[in-house]
Amino acid sequence: MTRVIWKLIKDKLIFPFLELDIKYFDLDLPNQDATDDKVTIESAEATLNMVFDFYGVAEDERKTTVIEVFNFKGAGGVALSMYNTDESIRAFAEASMNTAYQKKWPLYLSTNNTVLKKYDRRFKDIFQEVYESKWKSKFEEAGICYIGNKMCLQPQISQYTLTGFVSIGLMTPILVCLDRKTIEAEVAHGTVTRHYRVHQKGGETSTNSIASIFAWTRGLAHRAKLDDNAKLSEFTEKLEAACVATVESGKMTKDLALIIHGSK
């Protein structure tokens, strides 16, 4: 459903008012395989400090393919494999602390190093090293704090945040690169496949589009900042304000209506 919403936003809210040169790259796994992953490299090289990321879903669910990687005998099992270099962890720490400093927000590092003693501990140690050597004085001057090694996993923190902001349909993650200039704006709710299957059959859906709209506006606002484009910045502010005003006037999608008014 995200693809449908994305096109509606482009056609009705963005393209009629802005002249944009957008480059598209299909990062679906079949296309990555077909291009020997060159499409991923091409998309990275084409990035001009701003990326929009949206999710698609197979037109026909019968096309979905299940690939058996390993068949656990007996009662079954689960496998987990993760790796990161110190360089990438350090870049993550720098980007996280820069974002917190720019927004004047406290920064919390969530780890589970009592279980993943070496893997998560490496994150904790490098984050602390970066903070102490480069950011501690800046954070103190800004009146914000950094707290690491909180024994709370990321999914739990996401749920806490989600509870505070009502609906996942209102969440727009912004990913910041180490260069402090390049960002990626995306939606948090994924493809909304269940709604899309209803849409394919001609049924009526009530899908929250606010996160997708704000993915556009947050990305464009960053473009405006980089280019010192006051008119573009004003456009993004007005579009976001219009979304808020629409909901506050009582016009909203089903997910918000259920939270505000209940099921009756």
Description:
This protein has 264 residues and is mostly helical. It has a single domain (2-63, 78-261), classed as Isopropylmalate Dehydrogenase (3-Layer(aba) Sandwich), CATH 3.40.718. It is built from ten helices and five strands. The protein has helices spanning 2-14, 29-34, 38-46, 86-103, 119-142, 154-164, 193-200, 210-227, 230-248, 254-261, and strands spanning 50-53, 107-110, 146-150, 174-176, 183-186. The protein has a three-stranded mixed sheet. The longest helix is centred in the middle third of the chain and has 24 residues, at 119-142. It is globular, with a radius of gyration of 21 Å. It starts with a helix and ends with a helix. The mean pLDDT is 82.
Q: Indicate the structural class.
A: mainly alpha
> Low-confidence parts, pLDDT < 50 over ≥5 residues?
none
Helix content range of the residues, please?
Answer: 40-55%
At the first level of CATH, what is the class? Alpha Beta
Strand content of the residues, in percent? 5-15%
Secondary-structure element order, as H and E? Answer: HHHEHEHEHEEHHHH
Helical stretch count?
Answer: 10
Let me know the average pLDDT: 82
What number of structural domains do the residues give?
A: 1
Q: What coarse outline follows from CA principal-axis ratios?
A: globular
Strand-helix topology:
Elements: H1 2-14, H2 29-34, H3 38-46, E1 50-53, H4 86-103, E2 107-110, H5 119-142, E3 146-150, H6 154-164, E4 174-176, E5 183-186, H7 193-200, H8 210-227, H9 230-248, H10 254-261
Parallel strand pairs: 1-5, 2-3
Antiparallel strand pairs: 4-5
Helix pairs in contact: 4-5, 8-9
Family: Belongs to the isocitrate and isopropylmalate dehydrogenases family.
Pfam families: Iso_dh
GO molecular function: metal ion binding; oxidoreductase activity
